[in-house]
Amino acid sequence: MRNKSKKRRIHLFFLLVFLSVAGLISFFRQGQTETDTGTDIAQYASGNMRVHFIDVGQADCILVQADGRNLLIDAGGNESEQLVVEYLRDQGVIYLDYVIASHAHVDHIGGMDAVIRNFPIGMFFLPKEKYDTESFQDVLIAVREKEITIHRPEFKEAYRLGEARFLFVTPDSEKQYEDVNDLSLGIRISNGAHSFLICGDISKKMEKQILKSRVYIRSDVMKLNHHGSSDANSWKFLKQVDPSFVVLTCGKSNDYGHPHRSVMKRIKKLDAGVFRTDRQGTIVFESDGEHLTSSKSPDEER
Q1: Beta strand pairing call for 150-151 and 158-161
Q2: Would residue 13 count as lying in a domain?
Q3: What is the extent of the structural domain holding 133?
Q4: How far apart are CA 104 and CA 46, in angstroms?
Q5: Which residues in 225-250 are b (16+ Cβ under 10 Å) and which e?
Q6: Local structure of 51: helix, strand or coil
Q7: What is the number of H-type helices and E-type strands within the chain?
Q8: If you placed Cys at 47, which of 142, 159, 163, 227 could pair as Cys (CB 3.0 to 4.6 Å)?
Q9: CA 3, CA 38: separation in Å to the nearest integer?
Q10: CATH of the domain at 104
């Protein structure tokens, strides 16, 4: 009887060891899968997140706030620098945990030097650029004055923003592209059940590379690429993102004809709600991980 009891204890011990090891293997496999496939790294995490698509005319400026943390993506044109600084202050921003200058075009970094001089910054992201303009040089001068280190993110590099997460989805921040727009740093932000895709001014060529990489880009809200231009926002890309809502950051009666009709036809085919800064001004989304609300209703005119 003692031998049988001893055997049972030994069997039980090895069973517990096996289950523990299996659990650890399962845990590590799950973590590896999230890193390797780029799936929603915040599917179990949620806090309070607000995403502000700030009306800066024919330009981009997006503020993301989550649990007391702040991320700024672009800063509008030169003429909007004071507007951007004041808007950030009105939202209680005294420190920017992360700043992403998507690429060197003036409608994305024109106001960035003013932001750098007015707010302390934790991490500053910028692609490797050879684009030499006065506005871009102003940014580099401000970065040097404030002794800020420029970080070139790797593909699928991920960061926490409170309980939210964001992941870089554009393939290579070090590579030089013929089209400066394709240097744009693109990210997917997740908070619980909700996600936002913001990819600057990338073209169809870069959209194709992102699709080829198989990184997970499905999102509830998508900022249309390149202000709704027809050189971007391919049907394959839009279909893969499959957004419930799209946001157009463009100026009233702009000289580029943004958004282009062909793109709006694709959005209609998707049956996605449309928000437009040229018609509605600044638009703010709020997520608690379960419920997603917006400061305004979708634009009915399209």
Answers
A1: unpaired
A2: no
A3: 38-294
A4: 33
A5: bbbbbbbbbbeebbebbebebbbbbb
A6: strand
A7: 9, 15
A8: 163
A9: 52
A10: 3.60.15.10
More confident residue, 275 or 47: 275
| Residue pLDDT, tens place only, 30-75 | 223 334 344 454 455 678 999 999 999 999 999 999 999 999 999 9
Are 263 and 222 a contacting pair, CB within 8 Å?
Answer: no
Residue 111 has what DSSP assignment?
A: T
For residue 10, tell me if it sits in a domain.
no
CA dist 34 to 31, 43, 171, 212, Å?
5, 10, 17, 18
Please give the average per-residue pLDDT across 5-15, as a whole number: 40
Q: Give whole-number Cα distances, 62 to 131, 139, 199, 209, 251, in Å.
A: 23, 18, 11, 24, 15
CB distance 246 to 219 below 8 Å: no
Comparing C-alpha atoms, which of 26, 193, 227, 218 is closest to residue 107? 227
Residue 31 lies in a domain: no
Amino acid at 206: M
CB atoms within 10 A of CB 257: 13
What is the Cα–Cα distance from 23 to 229, expressed in whole angstroms?
Answer: 49
**Structural domain tally of the chain?**
1
**What are the DSSP E strand ranges found in the chain?**
49-53, 62-66, 69-73, 96-100, 121-125, 150-151, 158-161, 164-168, 187-191, 194-198, 221-223, 245-248, 273-276, 283-287, 292-294
Q: What are the tokens at 11?
A: 């069997």
Query: Which residue type does 301 have?
Result: E
Q: Which amino acid is at 214?
A: R
Q: Given this model, what pLDDT does residue 11 score?
A: 43
Q: What is the pTM of this model?
A: 0.85
- Does 214 reside within a domain? yes
* Amino acid in the structure at residue 131: Y
